[in-house]
Specification:
- With 373 residues, the protein is of the alpha+beta class.
- The chain has 3 domains: 125 residues, 2-Layer Sandwich (Beta-Lactamase), CATH 3.30.450.20; 74 residues; 156 residues, Histidine kinase-like ATPase, C-terminal domain (Heat Shock Protein 90).
- The protein is elongated and about 95 Å long.
- Helix 7 packs antiparallel against helix 8 and helix 9 packs across helix 10.
- The longest helix has 45 residues.
- The protein is 43% helix and 23% strand.
- Strand 4 and strand 5 form a beta hairpin.
Length: 373
């Protein structure tokens, strides 16, 4: 059999989707992978690629890559480079944006397909994966360090505050009207400090969260109701829920606290905008696992809950430390909302992360689902 005929049969087999060992191995790769033939048509797509492009493999195989990417995208030039020199090429930090794809930054790795002349294998890797891992580690270190600090604050500050407030009340009984204003100020300030310490005490609670089934949509609806009746009266809320989502393994009240904090931040970000909108979204994302410290167990986190807004975005200098205590961009903010949210999500065995740019900030919380015994 001539080489041309053999290569043609190989291409026909790939296009037809006949399963091979190589196909099975590529399908198991956790990053989005597509194969492109000499004509630029997509001939292979693994399951992560289906999620990446929001399209089934069968539909992708009817598309050309140039139709999926904007004109002049660097990926197209890299493909030509691989074809011309038959070498593996990598490019980092490429912006992917088109009517079919939401804006994102990715690393791209391309290799020639030996059995398919002109064929190129393209792997997309989220540019923020390493950054997200660093953030998760930073959050855990920050939580551990602030736990000890919170315990000291609760013990060493609350008792003196009670004494200061009591003394101020005693002085007020025999004080003149002008002096009473000062004693009332002392009482108000001690109450404010005590409330701050009370909020910090959440970090001293090392108990594992309950394992009860929680309907996350009921939690989000409750959060929306609170928001619309208080701090977000003039903000448009919309939902994009997966109605088939199973129950979350967690604690309802603390999950409400998490998403109330995220909704409050989102509402503040769009305050004063005529088109300000906060979107609550849920989705089932299989394949996300978190290693459990001290064991070989890997906890599945298939439930994704996101809070998205179209505000100005998180300042770039705060994005790496936004989940640490006392980090805030708000003039009157305390900087504990996100730190508390990260602590609670961590207690649930989940993860929280943020992607932010002007007009698009998304906080994603991934949680384990409740399984029947």
């Amino acid at each position: 059999m001539s080489g041309k005929v053999r290569n043609r049969l190989t291409e026909d087999r790939v296009i037809a989707g006949a399963p091979t060992i190589a196909d099975s191995m590529l399908a198991a790769v956790p990053q989005p992978l597509i194969g492109v033939n000499a004509k630029g048509m997509i001939v292979f797509a693994n399951p992560p690629a289906e999620q990446f492009f929001a399209m089934s493999a069968a539909m992708l195989k009817r598309q050309s890559l140039i139709s999926m990417l904007p004109f002049g995208n660097p990926v197209l030039a890299l493909i030509e480079q691989v074809r011309e020199h038959s070498v593996t090429v990598s490019e980092y930090g490429i912006e992917i944006q088109s009517p079919r794809l939401s804006p994102r930054a990715v690393d791209v790795h391309l290799s020639p397909i030996g059995d398919l002349p002109g064929g190129v294998l393209v792997m997309f890797q989220g540019r923020s994966i390493a950054q997200k891992m660093d953030r998760q580690v930073t959050q855990r270190h920050a939580t551990r360090s602030v736990t000890s600090m919170a315990a000291i604050l609760a013990h060493e500050i609350k008792n003196p505050l009670a004494g200061i407030r009591g003394a101020a009340q005693l002085i007020e009984q025999n004080a003149s009207e002008s002096d009473r204003a000062l004693t009332r100020l002392i009482c108000e300030e001690t109450d404010r400090i005590r409330k701050l310490v009370d909020r910090m005490e959440v970090f001293t609670d090392g108990r594992a969260r309950g394992g009860k089934p929680v309907n996350i949509h009921e939690v989000l609806d409750h959060v929306k109701q609170i928001a619309k009746s208080s701090f977000a009266r003039n903000v448009t809320f919309s939902e994009s829920y997966d109605p088939s989502l199973p129950a979350v393994l967690g604690e309802r009240d603390t999950l409400i606290q998490v998403f109330l904090n995220l909704a409050k931040n989102a509402a503040d970000a769009v305050a004063g905008q005529g088109d300000g909108e906060v979107v609550l979204q849920t989705a089932y994302r299989p394949g996300v696992h978190l290693a459990v410290a001290g064991s070989r167990e890997r906890l599945a986190l298939p439930l994704e809950v996101s809070v998205r807004d179209n505000g100005g975005g998180v300042p770039a200098d705060l994005q790496a430390t936004m989940f640490e205590p006392f980090v805030t961009s708000k003039p009157k903010g305390v900087g504990l909302g996100l730190a508390i949210a990260a602590k609670i999500v961590g207690d649930h065995g989940g993860t929280i992360e943020c992607e932010s740019e002007p007009r698009r900030t998304v906080f994603r919380v991934r949680l384990p689902m409740h399984r029947q015994a």
